[in-house]
Amino acid sequence: MADATTEEVRAAPTGQARQEGDGAARAEAPARPSPRARPEVTSGREVTLLVWRGDASGGSFVEYRVPYEEGEVILDVIHRLAATQAPDLAVRWNCKAGKCGSCSAEVNGRPVLQCMTRMSLFDPREPITVAPMKTFPIVKDLVTDVSFNYEVASRIPPFSPGPPDPDGKRRMAQTDVDRIQEFRECIECFLCQDVCHVIRDHEENKRLFAGPRFMVRLAELEMHPLDNLDRRPLIRGEFGVVMCNITKCCTEVCPAGIHITDNAIIPLKERVVDSYFDPIAWLGRKITRRPRRTPVTRPWSAEAAS
Amino acid sequence: MAEIETHDLDVLVIGAGGAGLRAAIEAMARGARTGVVCKSLLGKAHTVMAEGGIAAAMGNVWPEDNWQVHFRDTMRGGKMLANWRMAQIHAQETPDRVLELESWGAVFDRTPEGLINQRDFGGHRYARLAHVGDRTGLEMIRTLQQRAVAMGMEVFMECVVVRLLLDQGRIAGAVAYWRESGRFVLFRAKAVILATGGIGKAFRVTSASWEYTGDGHSLALWAGAELMDMEFVQFHPTGMVWPPSVRGILVTESVRGDGGVLRNSEQRRFMFDYIPAYYAAETADSEDEADHWYDDKRNYRRPPELLPRDEVARAINAEVKAGRGSPHGGVFLDIASRRDAEYIRRRLPSMYHQFKELADVDITTTPMEVGPTCHYVMGGVRVEADTCAATVPGLYAAGEVAAGLHGSNRLGGNSLGDLLTFGRRAGLAAAEYATGLGTQPKVDDAEVDAIIASSLAPFEREKGENPFTLQYDIQSTMQDLVGIIRTEEELRQALEELAVLEERATQVAVGGNRQYNPGWHLALSIDSLLAVSRCIATAALERRESRGGHTRDDYPKPDEEFAKINHVLRLEDGKLVLRREPLPQMPPELQALFEEDH
Q1: What is the pLDDT of residues B357-392, one digit of tens each?
Q2: Which of B49, B579, B580 sits opposite A95 (nearest CB)?
Q3: Taking burial as the number of CB atoms within 10 A of a residue's CB, which of A26, B59, B498, B595 is the most buried?
Q4: What is the ipTM of this complex?
Q5: Catalytic site residue B236?
């Protein structure tokens, strides 16, 4: 239907006088429906979604029947739901390609990026539940208040390099940065924070444990070949690395495939333990007199720093 | 005026992508009270999607490289329509900006000597893109974000500016709303820096996210500033074409930079059939020569797959039109048969991931299907090259929202350097302007009330236009009539359809309440989408030639007369007016760079 209408309208003469240099030539066009095709689903497929709707005061799962096409992801279906049935459905998204980490949610109970979760994973006869991340307070529908993460980030002392080489450049071997580059693949979707047992079910622990995302950040700084600060006192104290009990749930849900537990948290635990209890390291510190890096014992504060 | 949350600032930065954050960092470092507003959470801006790298003549891989060569590549890539001074500043200063990013914690890929590695890209004579695999944008935004956080930057997240405010023709602030609560907020600011990115959501097939609704372009236009070069929209040659849900998502040019080639359904490397005379001298004319170039750039010419984006996009378009496309209406991008799997996974990890997860395609064994996607707008706010100042006092623009650096076509890799270099300059100039201004300009309370009232109007209509439908219809008009190949008849028809859409936009209705309501948010961006769409169609109609990102089927060749002018647009009594502005003249020593035999 759409094609025929399109042809018809596009073939019609415009009948407009040419107006030099003045782009404001507004046509006296009658109000008419758009001549162009709209995104209609032709596959005949439909799915039942149970979407959590509500806000801080409460809410519940609401059932919707939504058509979908082959090759689509959950986020496409959520968008179609918004465009056709629930225009005020709150959902965050940006890149739609697994690069920005905005559309985190719990689909059938699993923390995932909606943009990377294909419909072909599900049995079309079963309803799919879509819920917000549980670890963070609800704002509305699928949107949660993730400010906890931004607050933790602001307390981490930033990268602190020494001066560059005399030619103004800095040198690091690729092999020495391979492991920190893995950590910098983090897209801050906060799914690891969502799934972490330490903070998911224990609000009070958010004061004591920074969560897997920030263990990754701390590991990156700790292992950076050019960084001059020693954050181990903070990693042990303020950021609470010892609270992690290595269940590896964070690693399992990481859409960037970062080996959070094995490559970040366990090495941090080892470094912290070594620096406190390893007699050889203790002796080494006594002998070398001056530590290579400046130990930081207080969390970062921009006001204090400036 | 009703009670409204109010913030007093020297410099308000709109947008927290690469340009916005770099601008804010500079303004704050210069002592200005600085605030950043952004529509999404911090760290999610469009910059995060940039893949290839930052073009900077650092000479780490090719010592022959220098700013003059980069300058020349940029000017030629933009078909000589770029502002020469911006291209010069960009080529000269970007290497320092990259090193600065490294000192703030960015971890670039390394050369064997331990320096920042640089990769090949279309239109760049030497391998000069500083990069991190194929996720350079993520590295850049995270680094700037972490720097801003460490400085204690005030960031207003999920906050959207609806109008700029003026006091006697100067910037006085902006009215915005919080997405979370739907409440309004007033920023009284001496200077505003627009760093809002592009207009991709005006098209249906696009690599852009929901944020790209041309906000900065329209805010500037409505505030009385001038826009320039709006006819030049870049269609990136390689977007995903299948499955339908990912149509338009970007496939980085690095695939070609790292050895990938384009083939049609007959397995022919068709780019050899589309080498324009302009680039013939420096482009290989046989597969053998092209394949040698990756290892020996001194003795061999570059493969035609690495021609500037406009050339490649047009070629793909022509192949598909001629019936030699792939099953889903694109062409094949093949790196599987050219590089080993380990190399592909190391150099292009996110592409590997993206195709595996979204299309079920293993790019180490199977060619990708790709086609053109709306990617970038070269046009934008007309600014002074050195300060990024727009034509309204106190208003600045940097990054994609500003015009001038890229002329009629942007080279891949020149965007990230643009963000850093001109972000910094805008921050510097805005801070200086704000400091020099002394008193805070006055805000007109009645105007603020009127802006709020009109923003809330969609809630008051019982029934009316669905904003999602309206956006789709705008996109369809632009995609079908103002897309990659244009004609006078279709452009006129587009302007007519836009007039109807503008009428319909006055009847947008939304339901629900003001709390985090995407339907309402979209409704508030419809005017902006329509404004930029009209600007693009208007400028495109007037440019009766083909150049860079603007291709006219009825005027298929470049025209000397149009080589001398930019199209400048502004509102006069609510009407869009276009004028021709002569190009600024390059000094003789730079002119000479184009006369030598290269």
Answers
A1: 888 899 999 999 999 999 999 999 999 999 999 999
A2: B49
A3: B498
A4: 0.93
A5: yes
